[in-house]
């Protein structure tokens, strides 16, 4: 897989101030970016997992750990689906 790099400049000894190694800090930045981009709908769960360096199942566990919903629907779409489900349930009940 071809990948592009992204350089982020940090103050000297920054990883010490957040009590982590440089490698762990880099990993955490990737995970946090993946979580946020997934949460706001910029990445699919598969692409977010790829950015985080995780499988989709691991990424869903990470979502749970950080309180990010894996049900990533816009409010209008979720409301429409709920309405359709309610209408279907009423139809089934009447039969």
Give an account of the 3D structure.
The chain is mainly α. The protein has one domain. About 65% of the residues lie in helices and about 0% in strands. It has helices spanning about 15, 20-40, 45-50, 55-65, 75-95. Helix 2 packs antiparallel against helix 3 (about 45-50) and helix 3 packs across helix 4. The protein is elongated, with a radius of gyration of 19 Å. The mean pLDDT is about 85.
> What radius of gyration results from the CA coordinates?
19 Å
**What's the helix-strand series?**
HHHHH
Number of separate domains: 1
Mean pLDDT score: 86
Helical percent range?
55-70%
Low-confidence stretches: none
How many distinct beta strands? 0
Main traits of this protein?
mainly alpha; 5 helices; 0% strand
Summary?
Helix content is 63%, strand content 0%.
Topology:
Elements lengths: L13 H4 L4 H18 L5 H8 L3 H10 L9 H20 L1
């Amino acid at each position: 897989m071809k990948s592009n790099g992204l350089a982020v400049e940090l103050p000297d000894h920054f990883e010490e101030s957040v009590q982590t190694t440089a490698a762990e800090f880099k990993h955490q930045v990737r995970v946090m970016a993946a979580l946020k981009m997934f949460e706001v709908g910029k990445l699919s769960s598969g692409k977010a997992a790829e950015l985080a360096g995780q499988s989709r199942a691991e990424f869903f566990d990470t979502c749970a750990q950080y309180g990010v919903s894996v049900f990533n629907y816009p409010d209008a779409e979720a409301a429409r689906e709920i309405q359709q489900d309610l209408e279907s349930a009423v139809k089934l009940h009447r039969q």
